Fold:
Amino acid sequence: MKKIMIASLKSILLFTIICGVIYTVAVTAVGQVLFPAQANGSLIKEETGIIGSKLIGQSFSEENYLHGRPEKVSQLSPVSKEQKTRIEKRVQELDVEEVPINFVTASASGIDPEISIEAAMAQVERIATSRNMKNTQVHAIIKQNITGLKIGPVDSRRVNVLGVNQSLDKSK
Structure:
């Protein structure tokens, strides 16, 4: 019985070292060598320091910036009265004819860094007016920050909000 316990403890110790230490260090090292930006959080740096991450949405509420999805996370049923009231309120706050659904509904995490192309284009006039720019200039900046692919009927293209707002600030 004692031999079995000692063999079991040795096995636990061996696999803890292999899986918990060696494997972890190896995966971290490979990530740092092959994908350094992604392994460190896809941070966006400027002269003043780190301003954000491509992977985490930030709140922009000023009129001269592109706005992302609402941050307030909702675990409500899509057919609940409270959810319907929230969406109707958000639609009324916007001054656009057609509102893309992801512009008035929060994501599960509340930190989406990207919005649909339609949601971005719905904000062009507001941004252009507040920055004294032409709509075509804002439109071009949004187009420069589109990521993803469209393959046939499958469209995964989206707009990075922080990237657009950085470009808008640089275009002054």
